[in-house]
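job 3f2a | input accepted
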Amino acid sequence: MEWIISCGIFSVIAIIDFVVVQRRRLRYKRMATKLRAQFVPQGLFKTGKIIGEQNGKEFLVETYTISSGRSSSFRTSIHIECTNNGIPLIIQSSFLKNFPDWRYVFTLGDGETRVFVTHIKERNVPVPLEHRAQLHVENILGPLKAYSGVGKPIRRGTVYVASDAVTFTVRGILGILKDAERIKQIFPVLETISSNIEANPVV
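job 3f2a | predicted structure (203 res):
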């Protein structure tokens, strides 16, 4: 009897999840049309992706889940093509609010985490920029100051500069995907970062 109840509960959860995903897929399809892009399905229980081109650079919009222990949360990311021959960068939107606020921009490197009375060395963790790199980043990102703040496209979220793309990521699903105009406003921000990094990488 218990296994029948368990199976019933599991089936209900699966059906609800399926319905939610299908509604999200419809939203993605409408958004793809507004962005003059292509919707790419990824199976019945996945939302799918939006792929297109903006001013000669490929872009990708996707939603995914981040799990930590028993909890999980959604992320929505917009990626734009970039060839970065320098160091990776992590730029939180607060960096631009009081430009330049170096508490909110990092690269990846070796760091230490304190556990009780000892320190554990970690690789590829966010670490502060060296002063030389700070000056370089300040020159590259100076034009973006106008894009941050109340009502601006990157008023919250994080920009990641990797070796092959510039990515803007925010928590959640609905907010950014209900507003095609906001996505269109984010494109020039990422394009500016991509072009500046390609022309003058931070090394």
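job 3f2a | Residues 2-199 form one domain.
job 3f2a | closed
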